């Protein structure tokens, strides 16, 4: 399927090469079957990527124990995956690069091939794929580590992608259209390697000291890295503008984030994703290292969250049109309520148990509603020719914010739980939940601004 980045210089003739989206009642049965088959392949790719994200969080304490790593170093492994996912670095990191090439095609495929109510339905299935992958990763990861197959501990979790990936490649070759309609010059346009380098350096200068600072005693190099991340981010922004001015393809299309509805929605989506990635990391460490529970128990703990997330997609498809503009902010508020409920549970002396799992489900439903409605809001705010750009920006924004969440909130938990007692672990968990609740309220404000911007400018917004 087409994966080129549209830019202001694209012509109407080029845009006609993009597959026409399908609405309600305007497609043949053969075309409908092909489109939904294509969606199934794309969602299988998303399912795989979410297994990877969830499974490595469950494996964190086992990796730490096996390799003698610190909590910060384990957090860096997890952050390395999501940073690579966003900017294509190399190392655990090769796995993240594969996800970065694969996953953005999901959202752009939905935007290019579906419209109206059909797009909302497709986004609902997208939420189910996200949820299903996370459920499988949580449960399967915990069981595999607990089984300790042939004395290999956590290592088999990284082999899951091999048979699944081979099957997915076969299905993709049979179902996904090629790029015959793309201009040769456009296909051969250089990737923004400088942009990747500058963005990678800016992010690493920020997350490495946040994760390793406590372990190292906050030496001068950690503060120097934090200070250097700001000018490096400015260098990245300048490089993007310069590349765009020269007619090149920037890593992040500025004309996409210039649209207020998209910009505010990205802020809200980034904040909620930040808290989710942090919770995945912190809850696994809290239950296994803080409370001494096994990996299978820790894996089951988040199932209610990710399962509730999956319910949100189909539910949103049934929401009447007049209420849909309120869904992004409402989802963020529900997420804040979920974090607050778990915080109250811990603050009243409880540490774990079935009630904790139920309360986590509230947050999962809130995240599902906010994430799905925010993504839908962004896809409806732009013409379809920006599908590839928007998909890449959404994925990059979410993964970088996720890495920052693991670094900042995860690093904060490791600092507060450094005492090694159940009480210190609970205090650290409470702090993370409290911060996440506040951040979720801020995301609700940003989400509401995005909805207002879309209502003011109309849909779709025609950019330069």
Shape: globular
Q: Structural class, judged by helices and strands?
A: mainly alpha
- Main sheet, how many strands, which sense, barrel? none
The amount of helix comes to: over 70%
- Note the beta-strand portion: under 5%
Please count the beta strands (DSSP E, at least 2 residues each): 0
Head-to-tail CA distance between termini: 25 Å
Rg, Å, rounded: 21 Å
**Tally of contiguous helical segments:** 18
Question: What is the ordering of alpha helices and beta strands?
Answer: HHHHHHHHHHHHHHHHHH
Integer average pLDDT? 76
Sequence stretches where pLDDT stays below 50 over 5 or more residues: 1-20, 22-26, 92-102, 180-188, 459-464
Account of the protein in words:
There is one protein chain. The chain is globular. The chain has helices at residues 12-15, 29-67, 71-87, 93-102, 104-113, 116-147, 161-175, 184-187, 193-216, 220-245, 254-257, 260-290, 295-301, 303-316, 327-347, 354-381, 387-416, 422-457. The protein is an all-alpha fold and 464 residues long. The chain contains 18 helices and no strands. It starts with 11 loop residues before the first helix and ends in a 7-residue tail after the last helix.
